[in-house]
Design goal:
The structure is a homodimer.
Chain A (H helix, E strand, L loop, with lengths): L6 E5 L6 H11 L3 E3 L3 E2 L14 E2 L2 H9 L3 E7 L2 E6 H9 L3 E5 L2 H10 L4 E6 L3 H10 L5 H15 L7 E4 L3 H16 L7
Parallel strand pairs in A: 1-7, 1-8, 2-7, 3-4, 8-9
Antiparallel strand pairs in A: 3-6, 5-6
Helix pairs in contact in A: 1-7, 5-6
């Protein structure tokens, strides 16, 4: 039988650089596939349906919730976000490693359903750096940035529930660390059949 | 304050290739130091005191046991083997990673004293391969080989107490996996202060 893939969940506060790290990681890691989230929020400039996200109308999203089609879902800043269960399960059972880039509450929801998932918390080099990164992101109004910063503080409370923490100071080093974590996790004795 | 090093313990049955892996690992891993064991057994050809082992007379070894100077010790095939506590603690507190290559019972003794130690079990590709490797080792009489093989079976019972298992099929791959395990362990949230 094919060896089951590793489900890696990467979380961290807004502005920490999850997207940049995920992109670099996927480019440099063979057999790692990205789990595309579904959301009801509107696409930002450059985002493509079915690639960045599955952009769903709210009523369709709610139907999928009712049908238990989500591995996790949440309502954040008034929009729904979620991870569809089926594509993740298919990839893992096909021996692919899967990367989920989701918020901490979603990560913990998934861990409850998949205890074998690996939770990685991406940390900013400092709180100042996080503020500066969020401010540079021109796409959002100031009030939203404030909301994100206060939410980031709440997210840090979940850090201890995560398996690993990686400081995002240099993307190439973060990539090497996350790759090492996946290699190491494949060697864990409790995963032996 | 300097970050504490990681104590990695590599165990596995006689003939699995622990020595070869340890040598390659030390050559290729910056800041990893080898913990030299003490023993009362006689040096094999080419072994140097203070480099391969600290070769100690039995009475001196016993005195050090009484003074609690060992992190672990055991009597195997009529000889004493042990790991002196002080050099390991000094290296770790100086930020060095330390590699201990010891038998499974020793590994578990150390884990009890250092729960933060990382236990890696080196597995042979197969039981046949293990027998063939032991038989090729010309330095030992046949009766000893038999004793080692039956002991190997007992050792496998301890596998589930180990954190990681790595199959020693190709040394360079084992080195990469053990290096990954050390990198990953440094990112574990429970190690954060």
């Amino acid at each position: 039988m094919m060896e089951q893939g590793i489900l890696t969940i990467m979380s961290g506060p807004s502005g920490v650089g999850k997207g940049t790290v995920a992109k670099a990681l996927l480019e440099k890691t063979k057999d790692l596939v990205y789990s595309i989230s579904a959301t009801t929020r509107l696409p930002r400039e450059g985002e493509v349906n079915g690639s960045s996200y599955y952009f769903l109308p709210a009523d369709e999203f709610r139907k999928k919730i009712d049908r238990q089609e989500f591995l996790e879902w949440a309502q954040i800043y008034g929009n729904f976000y979620g991870t569809l269960r089926l594509p993740v399960e298919c990839a893992l059972s096909g021996g692919k490693d899967v990367l989920l880039e989701i918020d901490v509450q979603g990560g913990i929801q998934v861990k409850q359903k998949f205890p074998q998932a690996v939770l990685i918390f991406l940390l900013p080099p400092s709180q100042d750096e996080l503020e500066s990164r969020l401010t540079k992101r021109a796409s959002e109004p100031k009030a939203d940035i404030k909301k994100r910063l206060s939410w980031a503080e709440e997210e840090f409370e979940y850090l201890k529930l995560y398996d690993y923490a990686v400081v995002n100071d240099r993307v190439d080093e973060v990539v090497l660390k996350v790759q090492s974590i996946i290699v190491a996790e494949k060697c864990r004795t409790w995963r032996l059949k």
